[in-house]
Amino acid sequence: MGAVTPHKIPVVDLSIENMKPGTSAWYSVRKDVQRALEECGCFVAVYDKVPLELHKTMFAKLEELFNLPHDTKIKNTSDKPHFGYYGQISILPLYECMGIDNPITKEGIESFTNLMWPAGNELFSENVLSYSSMVAELDQMVQRMIFESYGVDKYLEPHKESTYYLLRLIKYRPPEANENNLGFRAHNDKGFTAIVHQIYGEGLEIEKDGEWILCELLPNSFVILAGDALMGWSNGRIRSVKHRVTMNTKEMRFSTALFAFSTGIIQIPEELVDDQNPLRFKSFDHQKFLRFFETEEGRKADSPLQVYTGV
Ligand SMILES: O=C(O)CCC(=O)C(=O)O
Ligand SMILES: [Fe+2]
């Protein structure tokens, strides 16, 4: 594996007091968000609206969840690709994950909880619902800043209405002496945005200019990653970012990732196309793009979005 450089990923403080849309603090942070996404395809958001107590509770809840018997965990299935349980994969032996579809609604959370704990687990449902809702609020804030900074906020509302979320809960075990330290292979996310929270343990690495940069753990920090759908929507101004997980510790690592997808068409705003920025991607159906990624052609492509809908 390539060396990890000491470079830093941009950090943007989204916890500034009174930072409401329309204030000078908002405009200034919005500019930082746009710059970070255009330059790196990601940034570390400092966000204190998710109480530290809830970070700790989530850690405990993830331990409780992954300690369930294997036969219970595999009940987490979905007809959507990569929304269900994954574990004991020979090429990714350290990795185990589960997915909650629609985690910002009581129904979404409860259908997951009821599968895992048929006798109920109210505390799990309550905590995960409030956690997902708070992280989704962060996502909505970032998406608003992106739309505004390109002057296309008139498209925000319809985009928001077609957005749905997946919460992935992830556990990595440390490698044994004879094992590789790859936690999760290098990839680009296929959603619009993804918010990774390193609940316990570092390991997330971001690729920049061919080098791997470790995402350090800061208090109250969430990593915002641009996915392929955002790359398409922004007509390539923001590029999706390649990332991977490397396990360099002797302890278990727990993380969550909240993905935003669209149920509809990702429409490239005409305002983002001009002589200097000719159209790079045709508008596309996000769900069909996700299915294309499941085909051999999609999997093999360096940039599946380019192959699917590139001009
Ligand atoms: O666990 C992490 O830190 C990253 C997970 C990730 O990139 C993913 O699930 O797509
Ligand atoms: Fe990812």
Automatic annotation (TrEMBL):
Please report the stretch or stretches of sequence annotated as the Fe2OG dioxygenase domain: 163-262
Pfam families xrefs: 2OG-FeII_Oxy (PF03171), DIOX_N (PF14226)
Please give one Gene Ontology molecular function term for this protein.
Answer: dioxygenase activity
- Tell me the keywords, alphabetical order: Dioxygenase, Iron, Metal-binding, Oxidoreductase
The residue stretches assigned to a coiled coil in this entry are none
Please give the PROSITE patterns that the UniProt record associates with this protein. Answer: FE2OG_OXY
Q: Which domain of life is it from?
A: Eukaryota
Q: What does this protein do?
A: Probable 2-oxoglutarate-dependent dioxygenase that may be involved in glucosinolates biosynthesis. May play a role in the production of aliphatic glucosinolates.
Which family would the database say this protein is a member of?
Belongs to the iron/ascorbate-dependent oxidoreductase family.
What protein does this entry describe? Answer: Fe2OG dioxygenase domain-containing protein
Name its species.
Quercus rubra (Northern red oak)
